Amino acid sequence: MSHFKSLTLEWSEDRLKMIDQRKLPTAEEYVECRNHEEVYVAIREMIVRGAPAIGATAAFGYLLGAKEVLDASDEVLLDHMTTVKKRLSESRPTAVNLFWALDRMENALNSNWGLERKKLIESLERAALSIAKEDIEINKSLGRNGATVVRDGDGILTHCNAGALATVDYGTALGVMRAAVEQGKRIKIFADETRPYLQGARLTAWELIKSGIDVTLICDNMAGWVMKKGFIDLVLVGADRIAANGDAANKIGTYSVAILAQRHGIPFYIAAPLSTVDLTTASGEEIPIEERSHREITHIGNQQIAPEGVRCLNPAFDVTPSSLITGIITEKGIARPPYDVSLRGMFE
Ligand SMILES: CSC[C@@H](O)[C@@H](O)C(=O)COP(=O)(O)O
User: Fold this and answer.
1) Average pLDDT, whole number, for the chain?
2) Residue 220 among the catalytic residues
3) Is there a contact between 304 and 246 (Cβ–Cβ < 8 Å)?
4) CB of 49 closer than 6 A to ligand 1?
Protein backbone atom coordinates (compact mmCIF):
# COMPACT_ATOMS: atom_id res chain seq x y z
CA MET A 1 0.00 0.00 0.00
CA SER A 2 1.24 3.47 -0.84
CA HIS A 3 2.25 6.34 1.32
CA PHE A 4 1.76 9.96 0.32
CA LYS A 5 2.71 13.15 2.14
CA SER A 6 2.32 16.84 1.35
CA LEU A 7 2.08 19.99 3.45
CA THR A 8 -1.70 19.60 3.70
CA LEU A 9 -2.34 15.83 3.68
CA GLU A 10 -0.65 12.55 4.52
CA TRP A 11 -2.08 9.19 3.51
CA SER A 12 -0.81 5.91 4.90
CA GLU A 13 -2.74 2.67 4.46
CA ASP A 14 -5.65 3.16 6.85
CA ARG A 15 -5.65 6.83 7.82
CA LEU A 16 -5.56 10.35 6.48
CA LYS A 17 -3.56 12.84 8.51
CA MET A 18 -3.91 16.57 7.97
CA ILE A 19 -2.47 19.73 9.37
CA ASP A 20 -5.14 21.38 11.54
CA GLN A 21 -5.69 24.67 9.69
CA ARG A 22 -7.87 25.98 12.54
CA LYS A 23 -4.82 26.11 14.78
CA LEU A 24 -2.41 27.85 12.40
CA PRO A 25 -0.34 29.99 12.69
CA THR A 26 0.19 29.68 16.44
CA ALA A 27 0.30 25.86 16.60
CA GLU A 28 1.24 23.16 14.08
CA GLU A 29 -1.02 20.30 15.08
CA TYR A 30 -2.28 17.31 13.10
CA VAL A 31 -5.60 15.49 12.99
CA GLU A 32 -6.03 11.86 11.89
CA CYS A 33 -9.14 10.50 10.17
CA ARG A 34 -9.77 6.76 10.09
CA ASN A 35 -13.27 6.66 8.61
CA HIS A 36 -15.43 8.67 6.24
CA GLU A 37 -17.39 10.33 9.05
CA GLU A 38 -14.18 11.79 10.52
CA VAL A 39 -13.29 13.09 7.05
CA TYR A 40 -16.76 14.66 6.77
CA VAL A 41 -16.22 16.45 10.10
CA ALA A 42 -12.71 17.59 9.08
CA ILE A 43 -14.08 19.27 5.95
CA ARG A 44 -17.17 20.73 7.62
CA GLU A 45 -15.16 22.08 10.57
CA MET A 46 -12.50 23.49 8.23
CA ILE A 47 -9.63 21.48 9.70
CA VAL A 48 -8.91 21.23 5.98
CA ARG A 49 -10.26 23.89 3.59
CA GLY A 50 -9.67 25.34 0.14
CA ALA A 51 -11.38 23.90 -2.93
CA PRO A 52 -8.72 21.50 -4.31
CA ALA A 53 -7.71 20.36 -0.79
CA ILE A 54 -11.34 19.60 0.02
CA GLY A 55 -11.62 17.54 -3.19
CA ALA A 56 -8.54 15.44 -2.47
CA THR A 57 -9.57 14.96 1.17
CA ALA A 58 -13.02 13.76 0.12
CA ALA A 59 -11.42 11.26 -2.27
CA PHE A 60 -9.52 9.69 0.64
CA GLY A 61 -12.74 9.85 2.69
CA TYR A 62 -14.45 7.78 -0.02
CA LEU A 63 -11.58 5.28 0.09
CA LEU A 64 -11.85 5.03 3.90
CA GLY A 65 -15.60 4.50 3.44
CA ALA A 66 -14.92 1.50 1.18
CA LYS A 67 -12.48 0.04 3.69
CA GLU A 68 -15.23 0.14 6.34
CA VAL A 69 -17.14 -2.64 4.55
CA LEU A 70 -14.27 -4.66 3.21
CA ASP A 71 -15.90 -8.04 3.83
CA ALA A 72 -19.55 -7.13 3.20
CA SER A 73 -21.68 -8.40 0.31
CA ASP A 74 -21.74 -6.54 -3.02
CA GLU A 75 -25.18 -5.09 -2.20
CA VAL A 76 -24.07 -3.82 1.20
CA LEU A 77 -20.90 -2.31 -0.27
CA LEU A 78 -22.81 -0.51 -3.03
CA ASP A 79 -25.41 0.82 -0.59
CA HIS A 80 -22.72 1.94 1.79
CA MET A 81 -20.79 3.78 -0.93
CA THR A 82 -23.94 5.68 -1.94
CA THR A 83 -24.30 6.76 1.71
CA VAL A 84 -20.61 7.69 1.96
CA LYS A 85 -20.74 9.79 -1.20
CA LYS A 86 -23.89 11.58 -0.04
CA ARG A 87 -22.47 12.27 3.42
CA LEU A 88 -19.16 13.64 2.13
CA SER A 89 -20.91 15.77 -0.49
CA GLU A 90 -22.94 17.43 2.30
CA SER A 91 -19.82 18.69 4.09
CA ARG A 92 -19.57 22.01 2.21
CA PRO A 93 -21.70 23.28 -0.69
CA THR A 94 -19.73 25.82 -2.73
CA ALA A 95 -16.37 24.36 -3.82
CA VAL A 96 -17.17 22.18 -6.83
CA ASN A 97 -13.92 20.21 -6.50
CA LEU A 98 -15.62 18.24 -3.73
CA PHE A 99 -18.29 16.89 -6.10
CA TRP A 100 -15.79 16.50 -8.93
CA ALA A 101 -13.50 14.31 -6.78
CA LEU A 102 -16.38 12.20 -5.43
CA ASP A 103 -17.68 11.60 -8.98
CA ARG A 104 -14.19 10.53 -10.02
CA MET A 105 -14.00 8.09 -7.10
CA GLU A 106 -17.45 6.69 -7.91
CA ASN A 107 -16.36 6.21 -11.53
CA ALA A 108 -13.28 4.33 -10.31
CA LEU A 109 -15.55 2.07 -8.23
CA ASN A 110 -17.86 1.42 -11.17
CA SER A 111 -15.13 0.78 -13.69
CA ASN A 112 -13.31 -1.66 -11.39
CA TRP A 113 -16.47 -3.42 -10.21
CA GLY A 114 -16.07 -7.16 -10.52
CA LEU A 115 -12.48 -7.22 -9.29
CA GLU A 116 -11.87 -9.21 -6.13
CA ARG A 117 -12.36 -6.99 -3.06
CA LYS A 118 -8.68 -6.38 -2.23
CA LYS A 119 -7.97 -5.36 -5.83
CA LEU A 120 -11.05 -3.12 -5.88
CA ILE A 121 -9.84 -1.25 -2.79
CA GLU A 122 -6.37 -0.94 -4.34
CA SER A 123 -7.91 0.62 -7.43
CA LEU A 124 -9.76 3.14 -5.25
CA GLU A 125 -6.54 3.93 -3.44
CA ARG A 126 -4.82 4.52 -6.79
CA ALA A 127 -7.65 6.84 -7.82
CA ALA A 128 -7.41 8.91 -4.61
CA LEU A 129 -3.62 9.08 -4.86
CA SER A 130 -3.88 10.19 -8.51
CA ILE A 131 -6.20 13.04 -7.55
CA ALA A 132 -3.71 14.17 -4.88
CA LYS A 133 -0.58 13.82 -7.02
CA GLU A 134 -2.17 15.36 -10.12
CA ASP A 135 -3.24 18.36 -8.08
CA ILE A 136 0.39 19.26 -7.37
CA GLU A 137 1.42 18.89 -11.04
CA ILE A 138 -1.62 20.90 -12.17
CA ASN A 139 -0.75 23.71 -9.75
CA LYS A 140 2.80 23.80 -11.05
CA SER A 141 1.53 24.07 -14.64
CA LEU A 142 -0.99 26.76 -13.83
CA GLY A 143 1.72 28.51 -11.82
CA ARG A 144 4.01 28.62 -14.87
CA ASN A 145 1.15 29.84 -17.09
CA GLY A 146 0.21 32.53 -14.60
CA ALA A 147 3.78 33.71 -14.08
CA THR A 148 3.70 35.12 -17.64
CA VAL A 149 1.46 37.97 -16.41
CA VAL A 150 3.72 38.76 -13.44
CA ARG A 151 6.48 41.33 -14.04
CA ASP A 152 9.66 41.79 -12.06
CA GLY A 153 8.93 44.29 -9.27
CA ASP A 154 5.13 43.80 -9.23
CA GLY A 155 3.05 44.40 -6.13
CA ILE A 156 0.35 41.70 -5.95
CA LEU A 157 -2.79 41.72 -3.84
CA THR A 158 -4.36 38.42 -2.82
CA HIS A 159 -7.41 37.51 -0.77
CA CYS A 160 -8.07 34.51 1.48
CA ASN A 161 -5.68 31.57 1.07
CA ALA A 162 -5.22 30.02 -2.34
CA GLY A 163 -1.91 28.47 -1.36
CA ALA A 164 -0.37 25.09 -0.65
CA LEU A 165 -2.76 24.76 2.30
CA ALA A 166 -5.82 25.25 0.06
CA THR A 167 -4.60 22.55 -2.31
CA VAL A 168 -2.61 19.36 -1.91
CA ASP A 169 0.54 21.45 -2.31
CA TYR A 170 2.07 24.46 -4.13
CA GLY A 171 -1.19 26.41 -4.43
CA THR A 172 -3.16 28.14 -7.17
CA ALA A 173 -2.87 31.94 -6.80
CA LEU A 174 0.12 31.38 -4.52
CA GLY A 175 1.39 28.82 -7.03
CA VAL A 176 1.57 31.63 -9.61
CA MET A 177 3.56 33.70 -7.11
CA ARG A 178 5.86 30.76 -6.36
CA ALA A 179 6.49 30.20 -10.08
CA ALA A 180 7.26 33.89 -10.60
CA VAL A 181 9.75 33.82 -7.71
CA GLU A 182 11.30 30.59 -9.08
CA GLN A 183 11.85 32.53 -12.35
CA GLY A 184 13.79 35.16 -10.42
CA LYS A 185 11.09 37.85 -10.38
CA ARG A 186 11.06 40.07 -7.32
CA ILE A 187 7.49 40.52 -6.16
CA LYS A 188 5.79 42.02 -3.11
CA ILE A 189 2.61 40.33 -1.93
CA PHE A 190 -0.13 42.18 -0.06
CA ALA A 191 -2.39 39.72 1.77
CA ASP A 192 -5.89 40.76 2.84
CA GLU A 193 -6.55 39.45 6.34
CA THR A 194 -9.92 38.05 5.05
CA ARG A 195 -12.58 38.52 7.69
CA PRO A 196 -14.26 36.74 9.29
CA TYR A 197 -12.24 33.52 9.26
CA LEU A 198 -8.89 35.26 8.68
CA GLN A 199 -7.43 32.81 6.15
CA GLY A 200 -5.24 35.66 4.81
CA ALA A 201 -3.79 36.63 8.17
CA ARG A 202 -3.51 33.13 9.57
CA LEU A 203 -2.65 31.00 6.54
CA THR A 204 -1.42 33.09 3.59
CA ALA A 205 0.93 35.18 5.76
CA TRP A 206 2.21 31.99 7.46
CA GLU A 207 2.75 30.17 4.16
CA LEU A 208 4.49 33.04 2.39
CA ILE A 209 6.81 33.76 5.33
CA LYS A 210 7.65 30.04 5.50
CA SER A 211 8.49 30.11 1.77
CA GLY A 212 10.59 33.29 2.03
CA ILE A 213 8.23 35.31 -0.21
CA ASP A 214 7.87 39.01 0.63
CA VAL A 215 4.47 39.55 2.25
CA THR A 216 2.70 42.51 3.85
CA LEU A 217 -0.52 41.87 5.75
CA ILE A 218 -3.34 44.42 5.44
CA CYS A 219 -6.88 44.59 6.78
CA ASP A 220 -9.56 44.02 4.14
CA ASN A 221 -10.72 47.62 4.30
CA MET A 222 -7.23 48.89 3.34
CA ALA A 223 -7.21 47.32 -0.14
CA GLY A 224 -8.66 50.37 -1.91
CA TRP A 225 -6.21 52.78 -0.33
CA VAL A 226 -3.23 50.51 -0.99
CA MET A 227 -4.28 50.41 -4.66
CA LYS A 228 -4.73 54.18 -4.74
CA LYS A 229 -1.20 54.62 -3.34
CA GLY A 230 0.16 52.61 -6.28
CA PHE A 231 1.37 49.55 -4.36
CA ILE A 232 -0.66 47.05 -6.41
CA ASP A 233 0.04 46.12 -10.06
CA LEU A 234 -1.95 42.89 -10.13
CA VAL A 235 -4.64 41.04 -8.18
CA LEU A 236 -4.32 37.23 -8.00
CA VAL A 237 -6.96 35.15 -6.22
CA GLY A 238 -8.25 31.58 -6.34
CA ALA A 239 -11.77 30.27 -6.87
CA ASP A 240 -14.13 27.72 -5.38
CA ARG A 241 -16.40 27.37 -8.40
CA ILE A 242 -16.26 28.96 -11.85
CA ALA A 243 -19.46 28.96 -13.90
CA ALA A 244 -19.50 28.30 -17.66
CA ASN A 245 -19.75 32.05 -18.35
CA GLY A 246 -16.64 32.82 -16.24
CA ASP A 247 -18.42 34.15 -13.12
CA ALA A 248 -16.26 33.01 -10.21
CA ALA A 249 -17.22 32.23 -6.61
CA ASN A 250 -14.42 32.86 -4.15
CA LYS A 251 -14.03 33.87 -0.51
CA ILE A 252 -16.36 36.64 0.63
CA GLY A 253 -14.72 39.99 -0.11
CA THR A 254 -13.29 38.97 -3.48
CA TYR A 255 -16.09 40.79 -5.31
CA SER A 256 -15.22 44.06 -3.51
CA VAL A 257 -11.55 43.60 -4.42
CA ALA A 258 -12.50 43.08 -8.10
CA ILE A 259 -14.52 46.31 -8.14
CA LEU A 260 -11.65 48.19 -6.53
CA ALA A 261 -9.23 46.74 -9.09
CA GLN A 262 -11.46 47.85 -11.97
CA ARG A 263 -11.74 51.39 -10.48
CA HIS A 264 -7.93 51.61 -10.31
CA GLY A 265 -7.26 49.97 -13.70
CA ILE A 266 -5.48 46.99 -12.12
CA PRO A 267 -5.65 43.54 -13.84
CA PHE A 268 -7.66 41.02 -11.81
CA TYR A 269 -6.84 37.33 -12.37
CA ILE A 270 -8.38 34.15 -11.01
CA ALA A 271 -6.04 31.13 -10.73
CA ALA A 272 -7.76 27.75 -10.52
CA PRO A 273 -7.50 24.21 -11.90
CA LEU A 274 -10.08 23.05 -14.47
CA SER A 275 -11.60 20.87 -11.70
CA THR A 276 -12.92 24.18 -10.28
CA VAL A 277 -14.70 24.99 -13.55
CA ASP A 278 -18.30 23.75 -13.52
CA LEU A 279 -19.67 23.83 -17.06
CA THR A 280 -23.01 22.55 -15.75
CA THR A 281 -23.48 25.82 -13.86
CA ALA A 282 -24.43 28.43 -16.46
CA SER A 283 -23.71 31.56 -14.41
CA GLY A 284 -22.80 32.73 -10.93
CA GLU A 285 -26.49 33.10 -10.08
CA GLU A 286 -26.67 29.30 -9.83
CA ILE A 287 -23.70 28.82 -7.50
CA PRO A 288 -24.81 27.79 -3.98
CA ILE A 289 -23.30 30.12 -1.39
CA GLU A 290 -22.51 28.64 2.00
CA GLU A 291 -23.83 30.51 5.05
CA ARG A 292 -21.59 29.81 8.04
CA SER A 293 -21.94 30.18 11.78
CA HIS A 294 -22.56 33.71 13.01
CA ARG A 295 -20.04 33.05 15.76
CA GLU A 296 -17.33 33.57 13.12
CA ILE A 297 -18.40 37.23 13.07
CA THR A 298 -19.28 37.83 16.71
CA HIS A 299 -16.09 36.24 18.07
CA ILE A 300 -12.41 36.16 17.26
CA GLY A 301 -11.25 32.88 18.72
CA ASN A 302 -12.96 32.77 22.09
CA GLN A 303 -13.12 36.55 22.41
CA GLN A 304 -16.59 38.03 21.95
CA ILE A 305 -16.44 41.28 19.94
CA ALA A 306 -20.14 41.97 19.27
CA PRO A 307 -23.17 42.37 21.51
CA GLU A 308 -24.92 39.19 22.61
CA GLY A 309 -27.79 38.30 20.26
CA VAL A 310 -26.95 40.76 17.46
CA ARG A 311 -28.37 39.76 14.05
CA CYS A 312 -25.60 38.70 11.62
CA LEU A 313 -25.21 37.60 8.03
CA ASN A 314 -22.24 35.38 7.16
CA PRO A 315 -22.09 34.29 3.52
CA ALA A 316 -18.74 32.52 3.16
CA PHE A 317 -18.36 33.30 -0.56
CA ASP A 318 -19.34 35.89 -3.13
CA VAL A 319 -19.40 35.79 -6.91
CA THR A 320 -17.23 38.04 -9.06
CA PRO A 321 -18.93 38.58 -12.42
CA SER A 322 -16.81 37.63 -15.41
CA SER A 323 -16.91 41.24 -16.65
CA LEU A 324 -14.51 42.15 -13.81
CA ILE A 325 -12.08 39.28 -14.52
CA THR A 326 -9.07 39.95 -16.77
CA GLY A 327 -8.22 36.27 -17.17
CA ILE A 328 -8.65 32.83 -15.62
CA ILE A 329 -5.33 31.06 -15.19
CA THR A 330 -5.55 27.26 -15.51
CA GLU A 331 -3.21 24.35 -16.17
CA LYS A 332 -4.19 24.54 -19.86
CA GLY A 333 -3.39 28.25 -20.26
CA ILE A 334 -5.08 31.56 -19.52
CA ALA A 335 -8.76 31.79 -20.48
CA ARG A 336 -9.79 35.25 -21.70
CA PRO A 337 -13.23 36.69 -22.48
CA PRO A 338 -15.55 35.50 -23.87
CA TYR A 339 -15.22 32.84 -21.19
CA ASP A 340 -18.06 30.63 -22.41
CA VAL A 341 -15.88 29.94 -25.48
CA SER A 342 -12.39 29.96 -23.93
CA LEU A 343 -13.26 27.79 -20.89
CA ARG A 344 -15.20 25.25 -22.96
CA GLY A 345 -12.24 25.04 -25.36
CA MET A 346 -9.98 23.95 -22.50
CA PHE A 347 -12.04 20.79 -21.99
CA GLU A 348 -11.75 19.74 -25.66
C1 LIG B 1 -7.76 27.59 -3.78
S2 LIG B 1 -9.24 27.39 -2.92
C3 LIG B 1 -10.24 28.76 -3.19
C4 LIG B 1 -9.60 29.86 -2.57
O5 LIG B 1 -9.30 30.78 -3.47
C6 LIG B 1 -9.91 30.40 -1.26
O7 LIG B 1 -9.73 31.76 -1.37
C8 LIG B 1 -11.23 30.12 -0.70
O9 LIG B 1 -12.18 30.79 -0.99
C10 LIG B 1 -11.31 28.99 0.20
O11 LIG B 1 -12.42 29.08 1.08
P12 LIG B 1 -12.45 28.28 2.43
O13 LIG B 1 -13.76 28.72 3.03
O14 LIG B 1 -11.28 28.71 3.25
O15 LIG B 1 -12.48 26.83 2.09
Assistant:
1) 97
2) no
3) no
4) yes
